[in-house]
Design brief:
By secondary structure, the protein is mostly helical. It has four helices and no strands. The protein is elongated. It binds zinc ion. The site of zinc ion has 8 residues, from helix 4.
Length: about 120
């Protein structure tokens, strides 16, 4: 992979990381305001249930964002180590179109679908 390409993907990753950090803090704010609402609801079990459900949904999206954050961090590290864009499984180059869509991916499409089939 050329230096220019690496730089391009690095910028993609940094941009994605910034927007991910933004949405994580948005979620935290939403969680906080929901918690405050929760504190105002006393003894109404129906309302308590609905607050719990929205907190669960929030936690789910939060976890997914955090996973992506970790993956982005790892991809940035691979850029530094010059192993970026190489499939961790078979060692072949990952398809550029795939990297474009998912710059933090660690596996080529073949290994990825094989690993999903195994699950
Ligand atoms: Zn592979």
């Amino acid at each position: 992979m050329t230096e220019e390409k690496i730089k391009y993907y690095k910028e993609l990753l940094l941009k994605e990381k910034a927007s991910m950090a933004q949405s994580l803090s948005d979620d935290d704010n939403a969680a906080r305001s929901m918690m405050e609402q929760d504190a105002n609801v006393v003894g109404d079990s129906a309302d308590e249930a609905s607050v719990n459900i929205s907190q669960n949904i929030l936690n789910l999206t939060n976890n997914k964002n955090k996973e992506t954050m970790v993956a982005i961090e790892a991809a940035l590290r691979r850029i530094e180590e010059k192993t970026f864009g190489v499939c961790v499984h078979c060692g072949k180059d990952i398809n550029p179109e795939r990297l474009e869509a998912l710059p933090w991916t660690t596996m080529c499409i073949k290994c990825k679908s094989a690993s999903e089939k195994r699950r």
